[in-house]
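Following up on my earlier message about beta-L-arabinofuranose. Here are the inputs again, as you asked, copied directly from the submission form:
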Amino acid sequence: MKTSSALLLIPLLLGSCQQSSQSNVSASASDEVISFGKGDTMIVADGNPIIRHEHTGDPAAMVYGGQLFIYAGVDECPAPGQYYLMNRWTVLSTTDMKTFTEYPCPLHASDFKWSKGEAWASQVIERNGKFYWYVTVENNESDPGKCIAVAVSDSPIGPFTDALGKPLIKNSDTAQPRPDMWWDDIDPTVYIDDNGQAYLYWGNSACYWAKLKENMIELDGEIHKTEFRGPSFSYTEAPWIHKNGDWYYLSFAQDFPERIGYAMSRSIEGPWEYKGILNEIPGNSNTNHQAIVEYNGEWYFIYHTGALPDGCGYRRSVCIDRLSYNEDGTMQRIIMTSEGVQ
Ligand code: FUB
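Thanks, got it. Here's what our run produced:
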């Protein structure tokens, strides 16, 4: 157990595991908070970064069972190294945005036995009582390069198991913009539209999308490349889809070092109109990776920085700040704070 003025870590002995097949995806203050199992650690965050006992990057978020879940990759590169060393993902939940329960490791890159590991960016979504975790891993020599895999669980905290035994998307599935680009099939984001159709967006250098079948583990039709309208910009990676009112939002990392830009549309299939910068280059990190989520009536922007004392673009830390909209639906620039959202 570790205690500091900046962060309190408490080993947890929560109640017994209570699985649920409830399929609601949004929570209000009155929603019952469901316990899914024992946590390892309770974190009392004192501002940003919210997690300080390990390095975490590429956050994704999901509201389920009355709480907000955060999924992130764990950066294990020892200082002063400057390379990605990511073997596993972690999951935490909160009901007050200040105390976070971290659970036993729900998924390792090595759980995809056919892969060469590397736990890059990911996102979890619930459908029909099952939880689908779309992740980036390194494929084997059969189709070398980064690829997208999917794991499944009956619980938002796992354990998750490989759902397919092979990639959902592999490097050779996307020959554009360049067939030799081994790193373009990364950073999946998933969204279920109001009519029940599920969509997967992903990609570095190009933003790809495809429909998913009801079973969530097969593509439904061809792979498309997103064309953006409006001012020109340089799309990099890290797409995230969310909706507010009648507007769909596609946010992503642009440029390098990365800022977060975004586009808006009346349809999840576009056309997407580029709207400008949402978040600046984060402190001490060349990458920027966001999740945008509404929880208990407030909107949150969850991202990473290199803000810990030994931090950098390969030892990142998850942070949370508020997100606000303008009257016309555009989003106000994020103000990154050290105080956080408490
Ligand atoms: O964490 C590895 C890679 O860095 C992610 O896949 C990108 O989004 C960037 O954050």
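One observation from looking it over: The two ends are 23 Å apart (CA to CA). Hope that helps, and feel free to reply on this thread.
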